[in-house]
Amino acid sequence: MAQPAGPAPAPQGTQASVALSGLTERMLHRRAVEAAIWGMPAVNFELMAQAMADAGATFNQVVYWSRPLTWKNQTLTPNPDTIYVMPFYNTKDAGPVVLEIPPAGEGSITGSIDDGWQTALEDVGPAGVDKGAGGKYLILPPGYQGAVPDGHIALPSATYAGFALLRSNLRGGSDEDRARAVRYGRMIRFYPLAQAASPPETRFVDAADMPFDSTIPYDLRFFQALDRFVQREPWIERDRAMIDPLRTIGIEKGKPFSPEARQREILAAGMREAHEFLEASYEALYTPPYFEGSRWALPVSPALAKGMQTSFGDRDSYPTDGRGIAYSFAFFSSKHLGEGQFYLLSIQDKAGQPLDGSATYRLRVPGAVPVRLYWSVTAYDRVTHALIRELPWSSRSSNTQGLKQNGDGSVDLLFGPAAPPGQQENWIPTRADGRFEVMFRFYGPERPLFDKSWRLPDIERQS
Question: Taking Cα atoms as reference points, which of 215, 166, 164 lies closest to residue 330?
Fold first, then answer.
């Protein structure tokens, strides 16, 4: 009996086209994931540059906050216990630019100058090259071959655009302390080298009352920001292998980024996967902890810390995964981590449970915290890694006025959605509808922190 005829086989060319289409889509997805992880520090910077523009500033001007930060600053894990001063530079048209740091005395600055990849060019202030004497830091464009004037500290940058994160340190928590830190921070000078004979007045833009949002968008906006960065900046030799993968997802120098509907769907799926990877990897960085058996960690891999401090000079190491993770929850890097500042983070309580904004917790900070300047503790939104929105404050520090100490010199800090009775000065508010994470900052850290003869206890749930 004759068998019914099956469907006619597709022409070989059609089968090849279908197979190629499927392979292309899978490749687009994978390259979107890799581009998101690789490009995270650049996009992180590009979003800050956009926030700078939204605040009314332009490149080669200075954004500053005339008061300690509130939740309106939505950068990643910022410090609300200092005065921020942020020059944004672009040498593409202006040529080399000079950042003058004033001598320490009336105040002091802890800070670093970073390129657009947020790799530190150098640290400034007492913990930096000038050692508190002040100095003229000269930021040079990529490939610059010109002369460097005497008395300038030359900083070759791999990108045209970048920024400096300068903290004008507070001596205390009074209004006068804050005003003094603002006055000192505004003593910096920032101008093109070409105008050094008669420097123009530095323009400062106060962002204290403005939204300043650079949280990472895990959608098409991420790739739009990455495209802006690629169009402006030169390729670094170590990254030339990304030229073709970026072209695959529609990012190519000299061409508009305009993905079609199906491409946008695939890019969105790639961003979701990248986000899942970064989140899982971030949590994994808390093992091993900084103190044995604790929940505190410096969530930066040793390879990344070395890479950022050497401009990734080891030709056998390029930890882009670790870099992507780091810049998904923080911004900026220092050239010499541990000299001007040091950080520990916790996402769990002593029992190993996630920090819940609806619960009440206590952190007992032992006396004699090993710092020359001050310490501070900040709560962040666990999802965005920014300050928790709509809260009256986000931190407490050794400079907080009225902070209560125990008889042995220790300090009990309380976290929760409502202030425990009589403990408002020591209370760090949280939102009951979300999780949070905590950063402990050490400014002017000293040896007992590093030899671990001083130990920070875990956060303990009270109710």
Answer: 215
